[in-house]
Specification:
elongated, 3 helices, alpha/beta, 5 strands
């Protein structure tokens, strides 16, 4: 790799060496040529024809409210202890379809109470649990 800095007459002569630029452009072109066929590959699937079965029975919705002072309310009924809450979960887990649990904690509720309710639901194999009205948690 040589660079001519001047001429015999003493004039300054500065040229850019374009060989590395051309090398980089060729590498990019080769990479582009190699990757284009990969992006056009398609996977053909034989999908079943027809409609999926419609769900005839809508699941029951259980609303669990958690107040700021730690009070847990199951569908409007205050829950006195964690054992009573677990008995509610135990009674609902074998229903077909399993009820949906809509958990609505107050924004000032302690996380410990919410975590205990979620743990009780998990211990009793409740599968459909969701937080409702979580937009009020964003400040």
């Amino acid at each position: 790799m040589a660079m001519s800095v001047g001429t015999s007459a003493g004039d300054t002569f500065c040229d850019i060496n374009t060989t590395p630029l051309i090398d980089v452009m060729l590498v990019l072109l080769i990479m582009l040529i190699i990757t284009i066929p990969i992006q056009t590959h398609a996977v053909k699937l034989n999908m079943p024809v027809g409609k999926p079965p419609t769900q005839t029975v809508q699941p029951q919705v259980v609303t669990i409210d958690i107040d700021f002072d730690g009070t847990v309310v199951w569908n409007g009924t205050p829950v006195s202890s964690l054992q009573q809450l677990e008995s509610f979960f135990h009674a609902d887990r074998d229903k077909d379809p399993q009820p949906e649990i809509h958990l609505r904690p107050d924004r000032r509720a302690k996380y410990d109470v919410v975590a205990r309710v979620l743990a009780a639901a998990q211990r009793n194999h409740m599968k459909k649990i969701g937080f409702v009205n979580v937009a009020e948690f964003r400040d």
